[in-house]
UniProtKB/TrEMBL annotation:
This is Dephospho-CoA kinase. Signal peptide: none annotated. Catalyzes the phosphorylation of the 3'-hydroxyl group of dephosphocoenzyme A to form coenzyme A. The gene is coaE. Its EC number is 2.7.1.24.
């Protein structure tokens, strides 16, 4: 059996990357979500959580033993050394777990879904990159509705993410998601048919 090649799927907040990934999944494609992996490595019982509690104290945990994410974010936000320590602990674990999960794929290609695919260096794990793109006004509208957040909060997230032009420059394929779910799904299916013809993510 040939090893599945890896497609990196990314896009800014509110672009619709999760909806696209979901549709690829219904087409039988193995998908791994980097955000879910990042949450999983700090679940109770995982070694990383013990080290975090040891470093920051048990008040970084919720009463049920799970990580208090807002508290941790607040602690590292203004402390670059602590943030670096946390990244050095978590990034190798996330990478290792992501590779393991992608390795379980039996579909012709597998997808790594990550909002920080390019910035985090996860792009190096992929053979091809698909960017889900949307006009900024639409990103704002969707993200505000979905996250019940203010426009200022969403604008701050957009500003902190990779510039749209740079993301598009790294893309092998782009889906412009500006016309509802049916249109998005059609474009996913069109690319899926194309991807099935590729060897290692490239033209044979």
């Amino acid at each position: 059996m040939t090893t599945p090649w890896i497609l990196g799927l990314t896009g800014g907040i509110g672009s619709g990357k999760s909806a696209a990934a979901e549709h690829f999944s219904t087409l039988g494609i193995h998908t791994v979500d980097a955000d879910q992996v990042a949450r999983w490595v700090v679940e109770p019982g995982r070694p990383a959580l013990e080290q975090i509690a040891h470093r920051f104290g048990v008040d970084i945990l919720l009463p049920d033993g799970r990580l208090d994410r807002p508290a941790l974010r607040a602690r590292i936000f203004s402390a670059p050394d602590e943030r670096r320590w946390l990244e050095q602990l978590l990034h190798p674990l996330i990478r290792q777990e992501t590779i393991r999960m992608l390795g379980e794929a039996t579909s012709p290609y597998a997808i790594l879904v990550s909002p920080l695919l390019i910035e985090s260096g996860q792009i190096q794990m992929t053979q091809r990159v698909l960017v889900i793109d949307a006009p900024e006004a639409l990103q704002l509208e969707r993200a505000i509705r979905r996250d019940q957040a203010s426009e200022a909060q969403i604008r701050a997230i957009i500003a902190a993410q990779l510039a749209r032009d740079e993301r598009l420059r790294q893309a092998d394929d782009v889906i412009v998601n500006n016309d509802g779910l049916a249109h998005l799904n059609e474009q996913v299916e069109r690319l899926h048919r194309f991807y099935l013809t590729l060897q290692g993510g490239k033209h044979a």
